[in-house]
Structure formats: C-alpha cells, structure tokens
Amino acid sequence: MELSHIANANVFFKMECWQHTGSFKARGAFNCLQILNSEQRDLGVVAPTAGNHGIGIAYAASTLGIPAHIFLPDTTDQLKIKYLKKLDANISKFPDIETARIEALKSAKTKGFEFISAYNNKGMICGGGTVAIELLQDICDVDIVVVCVGGGGLISGISSFLKANNPSIQVWGVQTENSPTFIRWFENKEITPVKLLPSIAPGLSGAIEPETMTFSIVRDNVDRMIGVSDNDLIEGLKFMVQHHQQIVEPSGIAGVSAILRESSMLTGKKIAVVVTGRNISYSEFNDLVN
Known about the structure:
By secondary structure, the chain is of the alpha/beta class.
C-alpha cells in the first residue's frame, strides 16, 4: 500500500466508511436505541448532528420502529439530508451545530424525546469500542491506532478497549487545527476555553459540551493528539482517490492526513488508521479537491 511506502511502515485501513449508513455511527446508535423502554420508544429520540450521527440514529430508529427527530446546521451536505429523508427522519435546521444542540435539548425537555448525544453518551462510546474489538481480531500486534476526534466518543471507546487489553498500544487522536478543542484540553490536562474557526470537516468541528465524559477518557487513554489543517485534509482526500479509488469525506480522512503529515515518525511501526465516513456529495467533493 502506498501509505506504507510513504511512512516506511506497515499501515492498515479500518474502513468504517464501508459501514451501514456510510460511517461508524450506526454502531453506537443501535446500542443507545435498543435499550430504550416502551415509553421512550413511543415518544422518539432527538439528536443534534453535523450529519453522520443523525444518519446513524435515523437508520437505527427506522429499523426499530422509533420516531427520530434530527436537528441539523443549515450547512449540512445535501447528500446527508437526502439520506435522512429516505430514512423518514423528522428534520429541523438551525444556523449552526451549537444552536441545533441547544434546541434539541429544549425539545427533549418539552416534548419528552430521548436526547442522544453523538459522544457524551455511554452507548455511543461503547459502540465505538466495537471498532477496537475488530481491530485486535485482525491485527493483534498493532503498534499505533490513529483515530479522528470530534466530540471524542469514537476514540474514547477505541482507546478504552485497547488500553484494557494491551497498554503498550499507542492511540493517537487527530483533530482539525481550526477546531482544536481536544488538542488544547489534552495539552492543558483540563477543560479550558478554545477559539474555534470554520473547517471543511464539520464532523470534527464546533463546540463540545464542557461536561462531556469523553474528556477524562481521552486524557487517561490517548497517547498523542495531532492537529491537521484543511489543506492536509484535502491532500488526504486526493490521496484516497488517487491510490485507493475511494471517495471519503473530510471528517473521515483525518487519520490518513495525519499519517501523511507525520510519516517520518512512523518508521517500522504497524499502524491502523480508522477511516470513519464517506458521506459527501460529488459536487462538494469536487469543489474541495479542485
């Protein structure tokens, strides 16, 4: 594989972009929805999302016969909106993801919906942990696992399982330089204010609940946090098309972008990188790579 050649290492992809719904999100969604009681199922669930979390929730809800209310920012990719409509989700739009989160919480309180956070939720974290189970089954002697980080749900689940089974495995998190919340919290070893800027990777961007349970898990289990620029992400998108004929969304490619950027540090290692999502319209993808 070309990435192995570039890094002078043995690099494997965990292609969560091939999952049902086009990302890893269905794992946690089923975890959360299957444990709801009959009253909760009848009332339905509400989820704020940049897209993939909502698709995962809507897919699980449709399968289980549960009403799903998905709160999106206005900038959501049209492909994701089309997918949500196919799943019969009830869609509401808001100016940004933080407004969507606040309104979803209000809706849960006033209408009785079950609020499902994409990351501050044990069911979502444990769903992410199943990725690590499969990784170790396939590559039991992996040295480094590279995972993208938004709210920290996926890396919390993966790192918890890996460290419990083999503390010598390193877990590296990757976040955008424009929205480096976990990078700063990790550096400071505490939750602090972080300046946020727009990014082409909405799934890795935006405000994170300061009370999130994922911070302490990341602090205790992750070995390194890496920042990647929007240009790094675009290079990752191009790389996957040119060398693997795979269209991946910017939020899903961050791990590959980090390896391209940090290749000199990886010589001789066995590395697994989680490619987390593919849900991007062709027009948006074309605009980014060109």
